[in-house]
Specification:
With 621 residues, the chain is of the alpha/beta class. The protein contains 24 helices and 23 strands. Helix 17 links the parallel strand 18 and strand 19. The radius of gyration is 25 Å and the shape is globular.
């Protein structure tokens, strides 16, 4: 060690450190940080803005239109890169930072890395109270930034320039850790950002990171192998962790060698191609009859890289009560759920180890054949469901049209509302890892912002392919400004706005629980004297996008072809029926709170009906 130092501000030191962090991916070294998203204010522009200006060519800063959407874009960027590359977000003190809370929760729920560098109040407190500061009379250290503690994996407030020598590497280590991966928050008081310190030059040395692959414990593998070998009706649940581990090939080889049917979670969509013989379909509340049929009969379930969220498990009614689980997961917390036999380790290494311990075992042919037959029946249903003719426009029809015309490597993005269910059930995977359905936090507004972030990532390696966004009118109205961002930055999106006149899927849930339509569809809002349709086409054009409105799926197909040919963001609008055309099959029970008493007879009837399904619910064992 040279012992040499360099005097820098806190902000300058953070930026210099970020610039010099590299990661090895498939033998190629590239910067960990692909850049950042930033909106400047008084809490970050004088110091952090000054530090970022000289490195804008190697650490590009994308100016967002809303801090929440910046966070969504950063999450989608990380998801595209399988958590190996990261974007930072910088926001000013007060409301700018507060706007990132929802995005941080989304990243936390989805186990996605994102670094937030956010302004904070002055550490000296000399000018208190300052603009946008929340005062807590009994605790002067408490502020808006403390609200990020529950929604981040790493949190710190820098109160002295020297602290970043420990804090920033610790934040990066957390974001790159496969088990603890998630968002990191660094609060930067406005005075501390500009304070200087004599930093050791070694702190800024070029460093190459590699994602840790944790080998499984041999005893855990042996226990899991023994349990799986005892299975007469085994099944594999493939989650998003399969892709993050790069274990698709190992999962496929294991399933093929052992003849075990595979079902996919929402996050695990696109682990297997649509036509793979052992791909039995998506499981759960937004799943398929095929996957749910075999889930009910499986006696041993190998859950790989999934946190077993309630939409996967049907609130734990999707399985036989005596089914045994093997939790293969790099995260101990996920591997242990529902008294699973745990295999804590990297999916790629763990599947290989499990394969070696399986001896000559193969699933009974009758069971595998039964699963394949269920999938064939489901395929016929989907083919009919996405077809169009003399029936109302639907989400499924739009999905089918795009599916038939897109390139196998095009990326599909959807989130919240009714589209996650419809995409999950009806999209026929053309290539591995091409589907991003954000349903960990079920966040409206992710669609267009996430599409922008995914497109930034995609343009780094697959610029000739498209990013296709499915969004409803509700999500569009909630957050649409990144249409403008995509046009400004020349990151082309194809956005399908499927307008059903409000929050139609929640209206459907409202009706399904016996309630009257109320405050979900625009026409059913008691404070709306006269409902009218938004001119989404004109609105999108005003932000610089190509835009057109189509009347039916056939016209949508022609518009989609035009959008494919264009080098500019295109928005295609089509009205869909809020009542008809929903995917009617493939759903498991889902636990929602229903009134135990009501003056409405329909509500009482539906409550009894809903509760009757609880008899199938596993009690954590």
């Amino acid at each position: 060690m040279s012992g040499k130092t360099v005097k820098l501000t806190t902000a300058q030191a953070i930026v210099r450190y970020l610039v010099n962090q590299f990661i090895e991916v498939d033998g190629v070294e590239t910067r960990v940080f692909g850049g950042g998203f930033g909106i400047f204010g008084h809490g970050n522009v004088p110091c952090l803005g000054e530090a970022l200006y000289p490195v804008q060519d190697i650490l590009p800063l994308y100016r967002g239109q809303n801090e929440q959407s910046m966070g969504f874009a950063a999450a989608a960027y990380a998801k595209y890169h399988l958590r190996r590359r990261i974007m930072f977000c910088t926001a000013s003190a007060g409301p700018g930072t507060a706007n990132l809370l929802t995005a941080a929760a989304l990243a936390h729920a989805n186990r996605l890395p994102m670094l937030m560098l956010c302004g904070d109040t002055f550490i000296t407190r000399l000018p208190d109270p300052v603009l946008q500061q929340l005062e807590h009379f009994g605790n002067p250290t408490l502020g808006v930034n403390d609200a990020f503690k529950p929604v981040t994996r790493y949190w710190d407030r820098i109160t002295h320039p020297a602290q970043i020598i420990q804090s920033i590497p610790a934040a990066l280590a957390t974001m790159l850790d496969p088990a603890d991966c998630g968002p990191a928050f660094i609060g930067l008081p406005q005075d501390v950002q500009g304070w200087t310190y004599d930093y050791p030059e070694e702190f800024f040395a070029r460093r190459v990171h590699r994602i840790r692959r944790q080998a499984p414990d041999a005893a855990e593998v042996a226990d899991a192998a023994a349990l799986l070998q005892s299975a007469e009706r085994p099944m594999i649940i493939a989650g998003g962790g399969v892709q993050y581990s790069g274990a698709v090939a190992e999962l496929t080889a294991f399933a093929e060698a052992r003849g075990i049917p595979v079902v996919e979670t929402i996050a695990g969509r696109a682990n297997l191609l649509n036509d793979h013989a052992l791909n039995i379909g998506p499981i759960g509340v937004t799943g398929s009859d095929s996957a749910n049929a075999i889930s009910e009969r499986a006696d041993v379930v190998l859950a790989v890289g999934t946190r077993l969220q309630d939409f996967t498990t049907g609130s734990w009614t999707a399985f036989a009560k005596d089914a045994r689980f093997i939790g293969l997961n790099v995260g101990r917390h996920d591997a242990m759920k529902h008294l699973s036999t745990p295999v804590v380790g990297d999916a790629k290494l763990s599947l290989a180890a499990l394969e070696k311990g399986m001896g000559t075992y193969r699933a009974p042919e009758a069971w595998t054949s039964e699963a394949k037959a269920e999938r064939k029946t489901w395929d016929a249903y989907v083919a009919d469901n996405v077809s169009h003719g003399n029936r109302p426009n639907s989400y499924a029809q739009a999905i089918g049209v795009v599916n038939a015309l897109c390139d196998p490597r095009d990326r599909v993005v959807a989130a919240a509302g009714g589209l996650p269910a419809e995409v999950t059930a009806n999209w026929r995977t053309l290539d591995i890892g091409t589907v991003d359905v954000e349903f960990g936090f079920s966040c409206m507004g992710y669609e267009i912002a996430g599409g922008w972030g995914a497109r930034i990532a995609q343009s780094e390696g697959e610029a000739d392919k498209d990013t296709i966004v499915f969004t409803g009118d509700g999500s569009y109205l909630l957050m649409n400004s990144d249409i403008y961002s995509s046009v400004l930055t020349q990151k082309k999106l194809i956005i399908l706005v499927l307008d059903n006149g409000g929050f139609a899927v929640i209206n459907k849930l409202q009706n399904n629980t016996g309630n009257e339509s109320f405050n979900n569809l625009i026409k059913d809002c008691p404070t709306v004297p006269e409902a009218f349709a938004v001119d989404f086409e004109s609105h999108a054009r005003a932000m610089g996008a190509n835009a057109e409105t189509v009347a039916n799926p056939a016209e949508l197909g022609e518009a989609f072809k035009r959008a494919k040919e264009s080098d500019k963001t295109s928005v295609i609008v089509m009205q869909v029926d809020p009542y008809e055309g929903w995917t009617a099959q493939g759903h498991t029970w889902w636990e929602v709170g229903t009134p135990q008493v009501s003056e409405n007879a329909n509500v009482r009837e539906k409550h009894a009906e809903w509760e009757s399904a609880r008899a199938k619910q596993r009690q954590g064992v």
